[in-house]
Structure formats: structure tokens, C-alpha cells
Write a structure and sequence with these properties.
mainly alpha; Glycosyltransferase; 3-stranded antiparallel beta sheet
């Protein structure tokens, strides 16, 4: 992909995000409570509503809020909702990220609510969100309390890294007695960790963070599909791809690009080829030759997954990996006739597009 083509795709995606995100917004609640489908809209689940609203606001916070979205009211609303519900580490981590990004004086009070025991038990994705948020908080405030919290969260994230493979566990075994798939990291675990480590390295001037981020990024690139796919599940101790599908559009056009770009700025290494291959996947260079931007131009289809019978069969194939096997679905299961497009989208995808571009 030449730079002109890449810029064209990025401009198109940014336009989609700016136009489309307001369609997910509910003026009455000031939250993003709608899921976009090919036929219209459905309601966001209560379990995901706050998370997706937070990510949407993180993305919008890098731009002027589109007409029809009251950013300040929405910011106050997510703070209010976060206090009203049970305090989840994933909600707290994203809220710290959002508040620190906006240099909001509520940042430190929010960070003080994080409990070490919950950080130890959290998944790697949530821990990485917290490291990113606390890095921004420490950079913004310079307060020792934020620095100590960041140091603790970063050390927890370090324990998830498998030095032999360059990949991250889903969570640490010592904190996962109930989670038999602790060693099966997903792409979100990996790429959010790369981004978090890059941020922490910049704030703490810690070379270890940067080297770890580089190793993980390089491993992901080594395992990337020939059409630029960022695969979904990895056997972290063995350093192999476990489950290829689903391939999510948000990984291709937003999360991988913003993490790799940040790492490139920090290290001087060039990751543009890998990021561009992922973007080409969105533009139709994929298994189904499908343009992932919907014809309406207001949303990006969620991704490509296996058809239902194969989806469940593949889960059976990987069950032995819970007990230290290297089983994986056979390559014949990847045939295009066994795949389908996921013709719907959450608001957070558009939030990460705004953040990335």
C-alpha cells in the first residue's frame, strides 16, 4: 500500500467515525447505548454500556465532539454511573484514562479507588488499560501517589509476559485458580499491553517496558496472517496462534495502528508495513473480498467469523489447550465458505477509530 492509498483509507475511516458515532448516542442518557446493524439499531447490553461509552468518549476527546453529542455532560454521566455501580477494575481503568486525558481534577480521586487485590486478579487487557490511564495520570499530575499506583500496576503487567515466546498470558496463573484458560491470551491482551508499556516507558523512563513492548509487537507481526489479519487467540507459553477467528475490524483499523504508531515514535522502529496490511484487510483484501465499510458509509462491519456450526466445533478442538496441549483447528476450517461477515458494530469501534486517526 502506498502512502496516498493509506491516507485515503484513513481519511475515509475517520469520516465514518465522525459521522457514525452520533448515531450510537442517546441524548436522554448521554451514553452510547445503541448497536448498529445492517437493518438499523438494537440496544446495548447493560454489562457493556458503560465500557463502550467510556471508550467512545476517549476517542471523541481527541477531536471536537460531533454535533449532537454533549461531551461534558457525557463525561459527568460516566463518572456518576461508575460511582453508582459496583466498582469494576475495567471501568475504573478506562475512567482514569479518560479523566487524565482531559486533565480532569477528578483523576486522582478516581485512581485512589483502585484496590491492589483487584489489579492482581484482573485480566491483562484491563491491567494494560490501567497502566495507560495511570501513566497519563502521573504525567498530568506529577503526584507521588499516581507514580506508586503506576509502579504497582506495571509490575503486575510484567508478570503476565512470557519471555520465551514474547506474548502475554490472559492473566497470571497465581491469580487464576478458577480460569483454566489463563495462558490463552487474546489479541486485545497483547496490543493493549504494547500500548501501555510504551506509555509507561515514556513516563518512567524505563527501558524494560519498551523492550517488552517491542518483543510483543514483533511476535504479533511474525504471526500476522498473509492478508494482514491480526488473529484472535494465542497460546502464550508456546508462542503460537490458537484460534484465528473472529478477525475483528477494530483490531485491524484502530487498535493495532495506534499501538504500533506509538511504539514507532518511542523507538524509531518502523511498523508501517504491518499496520498497512491490517488496513488493507478493511478495504477488501480479506478472506471474503468484502469491503468492511458499510455502503451507507456510517459504520464499519465488526469483522469476519466462522459460521455457527464451525464456531462451536473449533471450541471443542481447542479444549485440550486448557490442559497444556498445542491443539488447534485444522487449516481446512479456514475455508471462505465456512466464514461470514459480522454485519453490525458497537460504538467503541468508532471511538477507537477517532483515537487512532
Amino acid at each position: 500500500m502506498n502512502s496516498d492509498h493509506r491516507n485515503t483509507i484513513e481519511r475515509r475511516l475517520l469520516g465514518v467515525a465522525k459521522r457514525g458515532i452520533k448515531d450510537h448516542y442517546d441524548e436522554k442518557t448521554a451514553l452510547f447505548n445503541r448497536i448498529r446493524t445492517g437493518e438499523g439499531f438494537s440496544r446495548e447490553s447493560s454489562k457493556l454500556l458503560l465500557l463502550h461509552s467510556l471508550i467512545s468518549l476517549i476517542g471523541i476527546g481527541r477531536h471536537n465532539a460531533p454535533a449532537g453529542i454533549d461531551f461534558k455532560r457525557s463525561l459527568d454521566r460516566v463518572v456518576e454511573c461508575s460511582k453508582a455501580g459496583s466498582w469494576e477494575i475495567r471501568v475504573g481503568a478506562l475512567l482514569i484514562w479518560l479523566l487524565a486525558q482531559q486533565k480532569d481534577p477528578r483523576t486522582l480521586d478516581t485512581a485512589a479507588l483502585i484496590r491492589k487485590s483487584r489489579v492482581r486478579r484482573a485480566g491483562t487487557m484491563e491491567t494494560a488499560w490501567l497502566v495507560t490511564g495511570l501513566s497519563l495520570a502521573y504525567d498530568f499530575t506529577g503526584r507521588a501517589a499516581a507514580g506508586r499506583a503506576l509502579r504497582f500496576a506495571l509490575d503486575v503487567l510484567y508478570t503476565r509476559f512470557v519471555n520465551e515466546s514474547g506474548l502475554f498470558l490472559h492473566r497470571h496463573r497465581d491469580a487464576a485458580s478458577w480460569d483454566y484458560r489463563y495462558h490463552i491470551g487474546n489479541f486485545a491482551d497483547q496490543i493493549y499491553a504494547v500500548y501501555a508499556l510504551t506509555h509507561a516507558a515514556g513516563v518512567l523512563k524505563e527501558e524494560k517496558s519498551l523492550r517488552m513492548a517491542e518483543r510483543c509487537a514483533q511476535k504479533l507481526i511474525t504471526l500476522q496472517g498473509n492478508m494482514g489479519q491480526w488473529w484472535w487467540h494465542y497460546n502464550a507459553p508456546r508462542g503460537t496462534v490458537l484460534q484465528k477467528y473472529p478477525v475483528y475490524s477494530v483490531h485491524q483499523d484502530a487498535m493495532a495502528p495506534f499501538a504500533l504508531e506509538a511504539l514507532s515514535r518511542a523507538t524509531g522502529s518502523d511498523y508501517t508495513v504491518a499496520a498497512q496490511k491490517g488496513m488493507e484487510w478493511i478495504a477488501g483484501n480479506n478472506e471474503l473480498r468484502e469491503q468492511m465499510v458499510a455502503p451507507s458509509g456510517n459504520f464499519v462491519k465488526r469483522g469476519i467469523e466462522r459460521i455457527k456450526p464451525m464456531k462451536y466445533l473449533c471450541r471443542l478442538f481447542v479444549l485440550p489447550t486448557y490442559f497444556n496441549s498445542d491443539a488447534a483447528p485444522p487449516g481446512s476450517f479456514d475455508h471462505p465458505s465456512l466464514l461470514r461477515v459480522m454485519d453490525w458494530e458497537y460504538s467503541y469501534h468508532l471511538g477507537w477509530l477517532l483515537y487512532a486517526h
